[in-house]
Amino acid sequence: MRWRAVSMTAGLAVVLATAMVLPSAAAPGHVLTLHMVELVALMYAAGPLIAAAAPIRPGRWGVRSMSIAFAAFVLAQGAAHLPALVRLEQHGGWAHGIGQSLLLVAAVGFWSPVVSWPAARSPLTPIVYLVAAMPAGDALSIWLMTTPVPAYSGVPRSDQRSAAAAMLCGSIVLALAAVVIGWRAIRHEHAAALAREHAEPRHA
Fold first, then answer.
1. Stated pTM of the model
2. Neighbours of 6 (CB within 10 A)
3. C-alpha closest to that of 141 among 158, 125, 119, 160
4. Largest alpha-carbon pair distance within the chain?
Protein backbone atom coordinates (compact mmCIF):
# COMPACT_ATOMS: atom_id res chain seq x y z
CA MET A 1 0.00 0.00 0.00
CA ARG A 2 1.03 3.59 -0.53
CA TRP A 3 1.28 4.39 3.20
CA ARG A 4 3.81 1.59 3.62
CA ALA A 5 6.03 3.12 0.95
CA VAL A 6 5.72 6.51 2.62
CA SER A 7 6.54 5.03 6.02
CA MET A 8 9.58 3.17 4.70
CA THR A 9 10.82 6.23 2.83
CA ALA A 10 10.48 8.40 5.93
CA GLY A 11 12.25 5.83 8.07
CA LEU A 12 15.14 5.45 5.64
CA ALA A 13 15.40 9.24 5.39
CA VAL A 14 15.90 9.41 9.16
CA VAL A 15 18.57 6.69 8.95
CA LEU A 16 20.34 8.53 6.14
CA ALA A 17 20.25 11.80 8.07
CA THR A 18 21.79 10.25 11.16
CA ALA A 19 24.43 8.48 9.08
CA MET A 20 25.47 11.72 7.40
CA VAL A 21 25.85 13.64 10.66
CA LEU A 22 29.18 12.55 12.12
CA PRO A 23 30.15 13.14 15.77
CA SER A 24 32.83 15.54 14.59
CA ALA A 25 30.07 17.80 13.22
CA ALA A 26 28.75 18.54 16.69
CA ALA A 27 29.35 22.00 18.10
CA PRO A 28 31.82 22.15 20.99
CA GLY A 29 30.11 21.11 24.19
CA HIS A 30 27.27 19.31 22.40
CA VAL A 31 28.85 16.01 21.37
CA LEU A 32 26.86 13.93 23.85
CA THR A 33 23.64 15.72 22.93
CA LEU A 34 24.16 14.86 19.27
CA HIS A 35 24.82 11.24 20.23
CA MET A 36 21.54 11.03 22.15
CA VAL A 37 19.56 12.83 19.43
CA GLU A 38 20.80 10.23 16.96
CA LEU A 39 19.81 7.45 19.36
CA VAL A 40 16.29 8.84 19.73
CA ALA A 41 15.97 9.38 15.97
CA LEU A 42 16.96 5.79 15.20
CA MET A 43 15.11 3.99 18.01
CA TYR A 44 11.97 6.11 18.27
CA ALA A 45 11.49 7.49 14.75
CA ALA A 46 13.24 5.37 12.13
CA GLY A 47 12.56 2.13 14.01
CA PRO A 48 8.76 2.40 14.19
CA LEU A 49 8.51 3.87 10.69
CA ILE A 50 10.44 1.01 9.11
CA ALA A 51 8.67 -1.57 11.25
CA ALA A 52 5.29 -0.17 10.21
CA ALA A 53 6.23 -0.62 6.56
CA ALA A 54 7.88 -4.04 6.91
CA PRO A 55 7.34 -5.58 10.36
CA ILE A 56 9.28 -8.64 11.43
CA ARG A 57 7.08 -11.72 11.99
CA PRO A 58 3.77 -9.85 11.57
CA GLY A 59 0.94 -11.38 13.56
CA ARG A 60 3.15 -14.07 15.08
CA TRP A 61 4.41 -12.36 18.21
CA GLY A 62 3.95 -14.00 21.60
CA VAL A 63 5.13 -13.26 25.11
CA ARG A 64 8.45 -15.08 24.64
CA SER A 65 9.42 -13.43 21.34
CA MET A 66 8.30 -10.03 22.60
CA SER A 67 10.40 -10.49 25.73
CA ILE A 68 13.47 -11.11 23.58
CA ALA A 69 12.77 -8.02 21.45
CA PHE A 70 12.16 -5.98 24.60
CA ALA A 71 15.43 -7.10 26.19
CA ALA A 72 17.40 -6.35 23.02
CA PHE A 73 15.89 -2.86 22.84
CA VAL A 74 16.60 -2.01 26.48
CA LEU A 75 20.12 -3.46 26.39
CA ALA A 76 21.01 -1.65 23.16
CA GLN A 77 19.76 1.63 24.61
CA GLY A 78 21.70 1.08 27.81
CA ALA A 79 24.88 0.09 25.98
CA ALA A 80 24.71 3.30 23.96
CA HIS A 81 25.15 5.18 27.25
CA LEU A 82 28.27 3.33 28.38
CA PRO A 83 31.17 5.83 28.56
CA ALA A 84 33.59 3.46 26.78
CA LEU A 85 31.20 2.95 23.84
CA VAL A 86 30.33 6.64 23.67
CA ARG A 87 34.02 7.54 23.41
CA LEU A 88 34.55 4.88 20.74
CA GLU A 89 31.61 6.04 18.64
CA GLN A 90 32.61 9.70 18.91
CA HIS A 91 35.62 8.94 16.73
CA GLY A 92 33.23 8.21 13.86
CA GLY A 93 34.13 5.72 11.15
CA TRP A 94 33.21 2.06 11.42
CA ALA A 95 32.39 2.24 15.13
CA HIS A 96 29.79 4.94 14.51
CA GLY A 97 28.22 2.97 11.66
CA ILE A 98 28.10 -0.32 13.58
CA GLY A 99 26.63 1.38 16.64
CA GLN A 100 23.85 2.99 14.62
CA SER A 101 23.12 -0.27 12.79
CA LEU A 102 22.71 -2.19 16.04
CA LEU A 103 20.41 0.46 17.48
CA LEU A 104 18.25 0.37 14.35
CA VAL A 105 17.99 -3.43 14.29
CA ALA A 106 17.00 -3.50 17.96
CA ALA A 107 14.42 -0.76 17.34
CA VAL A 108 12.80 -2.48 14.35
CA GLY A 109 12.58 -5.68 16.34
CA PHE A 110 11.05 -3.86 19.32
CA TRP A 111 8.44 -1.96 17.32
CA SER A 112 7.43 -4.84 14.99
CA PRO A 113 5.00 -6.52 17.44
CA VAL A 114 3.47 -3.15 18.29
CA VAL A 115 2.74 -1.99 14.75
CA SER A 116 1.58 -5.42 13.59
CA TRP A 117 -0.58 -6.24 16.61
CA PRO A 118 -4.03 -7.35 15.35
CA ALA A 119 -6.80 -4.96 16.30
CA ALA A 120 -9.00 -7.90 17.25
CA ARG A 121 -6.61 -9.01 20.01
CA SER A 122 -6.51 -7.49 23.46
CA PRO A 123 -4.40 -4.30 23.51
CA LEU A 124 -3.20 -5.00 27.05
CA THR A 125 -0.05 -6.86 26.00
CA PRO A 126 1.40 -4.20 23.66
CA ILE A 127 0.40 -1.40 26.05
CA VAL A 128 2.20 -3.06 28.97
CA TYR A 129 5.13 -3.77 26.63
CA LEU A 130 5.41 -0.09 25.69
CA VAL A 131 4.91 1.29 29.18
CA ALA A 132 7.47 -1.15 30.61
CA ALA A 133 10.11 0.24 28.23
CA MET A 134 9.68 3.78 29.53
CA PRO A 135 11.55 3.47 32.88
CA ALA A 136 14.74 2.27 31.16
CA GLY A 137 15.16 5.45 29.15
CA ASP A 138 13.86 7.66 31.94
CA ALA A 139 16.32 6.18 34.44
CA LEU A 140 19.22 6.94 32.12
CA SER A 141 17.96 10.50 31.63
CA ILE A 142 17.57 11.08 35.37
CA TRP A 143 21.05 9.68 35.94
CA LEU A 144 22.55 12.13 33.44
CA MET A 145 20.64 15.03 34.97
CA THR A 146 21.36 14.31 38.61
CA THR A 147 24.80 12.70 38.79
CA PRO A 148 27.04 14.96 40.93
CA VAL A 149 30.13 14.18 38.88
CA PRO A 150 30.62 14.25 35.10
CA ALA A 151 29.40 10.95 33.67
CA TYR A 152 31.69 11.22 30.66
CA SER A 153 35.25 12.48 30.51
CA GLY A 154 35.49 15.85 28.80
CA VAL A 155 31.72 16.32 28.59
CA PRO A 156 30.37 19.42 30.37
CA ARG A 157 27.35 19.13 32.66
CA SER A 158 25.32 21.35 30.34
CA ASP A 159 25.84 18.81 27.54
CA GLN A 160 24.77 16.00 29.87
CA ARG A 161 21.56 17.81 30.77
CA SER A 162 20.75 18.51 27.12
CA ALA A 163 21.40 14.88 26.24
CA ALA A 164 19.12 13.76 29.06
CA ALA A 165 16.35 16.05 27.81
CA ALA A 166 16.69 14.53 24.34
CA MET A 167 16.36 11.05 25.79
CA LEU A 168 13.07 11.95 27.47
CA CYS A 169 11.54 12.33 24.01
CA GLY A 170 11.68 8.55 23.73
CA SER A 171 9.25 8.11 26.60
CA ILE A 172 6.86 10.55 24.95
CA VAL A 173 6.85 8.42 21.80
CA LEU A 174 6.25 5.25 23.82
CA ALA A 175 3.35 6.88 25.69
CA LEU A 176 1.76 8.14 22.47
CA ALA A 177 2.09 4.69 20.89
CA ALA A 178 0.34 3.12 23.90
CA VAL A 179 -2.51 5.64 23.58
CA VAL A 180 -2.86 4.88 19.86
CA ILE A 181 -2.99 1.14 20.52
CA GLY A 182 -5.69 1.63 23.15
CA TRP A 183 -7.71 3.99 20.97
CA ARG A 184 -7.52 1.59 18.03
CA ALA A 185 -8.86 -1.23 20.23
CA ILE A 186 -11.74 0.95 21.40
CA ARG A 187 -12.64 1.87 17.82
CA HIS A 188 -12.45 -1.77 16.73
CA GLU A 189 -14.71 -2.88 19.57
CA HIS A 190 -17.18 -0.10 18.76
CA ALA A 191 -17.26 -1.10 15.09
CA ALA A 192 -17.75 -4.75 16.05
CA ALA A 193 -20.64 -3.83 18.37
CA LEU A 194 -22.33 -1.85 15.59
CA ALA A 195 -21.87 -4.75 13.19
CA ARG A 196 -23.50 -7.14 15.68
CA GLU A 197 -26.43 -4.77 16.11
CA HIS A 198 -27.01 -4.55 12.36
CA ALA A 199 -26.67 -8.31 12.03
CA GLU A 200 -29.40 -9.05 14.60
CA PRO A 201 -32.79 -9.80 13.07
CA ARG A 202 -35.24 -6.95 13.37
CA HIS A 203 -38.56 -7.70 14.95
CA ALA A 204 -41.72 -5.86 14.04
1. 0.86
2. 13
3. 160
4. 82
